[in-house]
Amino acid sequence: MPRRVDVPALAGQVMAGQRAGIAQAITLVESSLPAHRPLARELLSRLLPHSGNAVRVGLTGVPGAGKSTFIDAMGCRLIERGHKVAVLAVDPSSTRTGGSILGDRTRMGKLAESDDAYIRPSPSGGHLGGVARATREAMVIMEAAGYDTIIVETVGVGQSEVAVAGMVDTFLLLSLSGAGDQLQGIKRGILELADVIAVNKADGDNAAEARITARDLSIAMRLMNDESSGRRTPVLTCSALTHTGLDEVWQAVLDHRAWVESTIGLTRRRADQQVDWLWAQIEGTVVDSLRSTPELVSLGRRLESEVESSSVSALEASSEFLAAYAKAVPGFGWGD
């Protein structure tokens, strides 16, 4: 990232669909450097009026469900129909080193070759459930650049799904055949979030087993769904390998989005998501201030040591830290 960023020029590059400009813009909004935050805000303010028209899909699934292969196949299919597809794939960052695998491009080889696709693997940076903090901002950038389909791939079944479900139109859960083991591996909360469920790898000898799994998942969803909503979560089978069932899965995604528009209202849903974004930004800024204030970092380490040794309680340590934070950050008002 250059030291000086010409924000108006960068916004122009993004809206012109220039890949180098898109990459620089996402790097800017992902940056944790304090000097980059006002630049990122200015950039997003310029791009927001040109965003919001894409179909936003969150994708998750148990390990081995074939998420990247599914995206590769589905993305290519959508591009063949004239769409532009952006994939924001959040990789798990190491909690010890901060490192990230960032291997999604190798697992989406065919899609990565298309000029109408943009794949951005972003390290989670240790934030909640592996969701990259700047995912919402990256979605704005991709939409302003003319991408009409945004797919957010999460790292797996966990807390990240709650965050992703709060920023997309439709949440798609990818499962595998073998209902007993798979149902045990999927938390109830994740099933409740799912708007569409697809049992992948329904090909060859697995086809019959996939249908059985889909049946069992359908039964589970009937028990869990709120009948008052007037909608039942569809459970389908597909194969990213043979491309069978992909059209039906995508139609289910579009049907859900149409249902949202006719009931809740897509504008209302997006407005609620903007409020969530507001608080995510506030929380992120607070956390950044904690990490960038040397005296607070030093105090935090000392308090951690004292809590570990049981010389002070966690409650006492947190009170001391917040009192110090109130002094370091004027207007916080802790203890007033």
Describe the structure.
This protein is of the alpha/beta class and 336 residues long. It has 15 helices and seven strands. The chain has a seven-stranded parallel β-sheet with strand order 3-2-4-1-5-6-7, with helices on both faces. Helix 1 crosses helix 2 and helix 14 runs antiparallel to helix 15. The longest helix is centred in the last third of the chain and has 27 residues. The protein is globular, with a radius of gyration of 22 Å. This is LAO/AO transport system kinase.
Q: In total, how many domains does the architecture comprise?
A: 3
Cα gyration radius (Å): 22 Å
Give the SSE string: HHHEHEHHEHEHEHHEHEHHHH
Percent of residues in beta strands?
A: 5-15%
Low-confidence stretches: 94-102, 332-336
> Under the CATH scheme, which class of the largest domain?
Alpha Beta
CATH H-level homologous superfamily name of the largest domain: P-loop containing nucleotide triphosphate hydrolases
Helix content: 40-55%
Task: Describe the global form.
Answer: globular
How far is the N terminus from the C terminus?
41 Å
Features:
single chain, LAO/AO transport system kinase, disordered C terminus, 7-stranded parallel beta sheet, 15 helices, 336 residues, kinase activity, Single alpha-helices involved in coiled-coils or other helix-helix interfaces, Rossmann fold, GTPase activity
